[in-house]
Write a structure and sequence with these properties.
With 414 residues, the protein is mostly helical. The chain is 53% helix and 3% strand. The chain has a three-stranded antiparallel sheet with strand order 1-2-3, with no helix packed on it.
């Protein structure tokens, strides 16, 4: 059946030629992804121009592939046709429909051989996953750091591990550390140490260079948590625009951060099945491993989630709670999205803070709980800390508890 906004007479062989049998599956697909009728009509106009170009250039449908599509788009640009950034995406989606129906050949695998650096980092990745048993997210982080190091040392020429020296790594670490946080530098050193151990284990270098790498200074409990007071948190929530669907989605995200102290990634991983409306509980999925935690769902948070899910969440195949507002309605997929959302909310409320990411609300919740008499054990339980040392950081902001510990100023001055 054609959607009501596409007249049946519109889908004719005169308009789409050999593409006609595949237009309806395409419409169904983009309709499910949440594209609006005017946008879908624009897609069909582009596909119609593709049909006319194929006929004019003497190409058959079975010849259609990425190479031909690139030629078609270049021709469109030369004719000064309106060319949006979505045109390549539209045509790639059409290729997927055609390949799924068996109308054209499968995608050709690239014949570009991997570089020596890519082959080495691929081996390193497999070593970390299979031999070391590290989490995939940690492996991605390590491989990225090593890739940056090798690119800096060898550029585009072939990678020769035997030429690596400890001083090369130390120079790279110092140069990188100047522009990043101590935590970033720690991850870099850990990645390089694991890499040098791997090279020694594989016989690529004669001696293990890992012990010679410097240790990044980062003393436990040496910093203060960055937070804003409860009034500022409430001001951020109050200034959130709840008259739009995007605003109501963002409000629900901010409440999860501010009232339950969730991490940005934990908000992204929430799925519809994680909310138990009958018992008013919410399940939090761990970033690493199968671990899960159940937390009570406050009425304020539950109401915001229910309103978003009932009225504002677009249709989509994903089971994640929070989806993109614009088509395609895929799940929000990166923690940077949450950090950007928090940053915009803080700016709108006029709140100045040294930290502008999702963790700001987590620290603010813990600090406010401590000032209202909650114990460190209770805070650690809510924030799901594995180590008491993680929670002990908040003891440094409890000035009333710390005041009796202060030593008298020499000379009796006040």
């Amino acid at each position: 059946m054609n959607p009501a906004f596409i007249p049946p007479r519109y889908i004719t062989s005169a308009r789409f030629g050999a593409l006609t049998p595949y237009i309806q599956p395409y419409i169904t697909l983009v309709n499910q992804e949440g594209y609006q009728p005017p946008t879908i009509i624009g897609h069909l106009r582009l596909i119609g121009r593709l049909h006319r170009w194929l006929r004019r250039t003497g190409h058959q449908l079975c010849e259609l592939d990425e190479r031909l599509l690139e030629r078609f788009l270049k021709c469109q640009r030369k004719k000064r046709r309106t060319h949006s950034g979505g045109d390549p995406v539209t045509l790639q989606r059409l290729l997927a429909v055609l390949r799924n129906a068996g109308a054209i050949s499968p995608a050709r695998k690239t014949s570009v051989p991997p570089t020596s650096g890519q082959r080495l980092t691929d081996r390193y990745r497999r070593f970390l996953l299979n031999e070391r048993g590290l989490a995939e997210s940690t492996v991605d982080n390590y491989v990225w750091h090593v890739g940056q190091f090798l690119a800096g040392q060898f550029g585009r020429v072939g990678v020769n591990p035997g030429r690596l020296r400890v001083q090369d790594a130390i120079t790279f670490i110092r140069r990188t550390a100047r522009a990043h946080s101590p935590q970033h530098a720690k991850h870099l050193v850990a990645a390089l140490r694991a890499f040098f151990r791997f090279l020694h284990y594989q016989g690529e270098i004669k001696s293990d260079l890992a012990p010679a790498l410097p240790t990044v200074a980062g003393w436990a409990l040496s910093t203060l948590p960055k937070y804003i007071d409860a009034d500022a948190v409430q001001r951020v929530l109050d200034r959130c625009d709840r008259q739009t669907s995007v605003g109501r989605r963002d409000y629900a995200v901010l409440l999860l951060l501010a009232r339950l102290g969730l991490r940005g990634g934990e908000v992204l991983r929430l799925e519809l099945e994680d909310i138990d409306w009958r018992t008013a509980q919410i399940t939090i999925r761990a970033r690493k491993g199968p671990g899960r935690a159940r937390l009570p769902l406050p009425a304020e948070v539950g109401q915001a989630l229910a309103r978003y899910l009932r009225h504002d969440r677009p249709r989509g195949a994903s089971r994640r709670v929070f989806l993109r507002a614009r088509a395609p309605h895929a799940a929000l997929s990166h923690a940077a999205v949450i950090s950007s959302l928090v940053r915009r909310a803080l700016n709108k409320a006029g709140i100045e803070s040294a930290r502008k990411g999702a963790h700001l609300f987590r620290h603010s919740l813990a600090t406010d709980m401590l000032r209202h008499g909650a114990s460190l054990d209770e805070i650690g339980q809510l924030l799901r800390h594995r180590s008491p040392n993680s929670t002990a950081l908040y003891a440094k902001v409890d000035l009333n508890a710390l005041r009796p510990l202060a030593l008298a100023w020499p000379g009796g001055a006040r």
